[in-house]
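Write out the 3D structure for:
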Amino acid sequence: MIAEEHEILSRYEAIAQTTCRMLDAARIADWEGLVVHERVCAGLIEELKAAGDDRRSLSREAALRKRQIIRRLLADDAEIRNLTQPWLTKLESILRTGANQRRIDATYR
């Protein structure tokens, strides 16, 4: 594998490692940690896009490795969504209730 391919795959691996940390945080309901890791992940994705790594041709071996990493990213993302959905639904309910309470308070003050 040439150095350029190694660098590209290293970028994808960094994203995968960060996504794994996000999943770990979601599994223990560490929502603040999840958000921190999500921001790091977003930054890594922007770096990947800026470097143009997502559009470069890769050898067959490197392309296979890239696909494996992306599959792992998608699996982690799906599990994160499954873990966060109940929390997001509860948060939405709390926020909706708070907004309704403020409207009631404003009406009857």
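Helices lie at 3-27, 31-51, 60-107.
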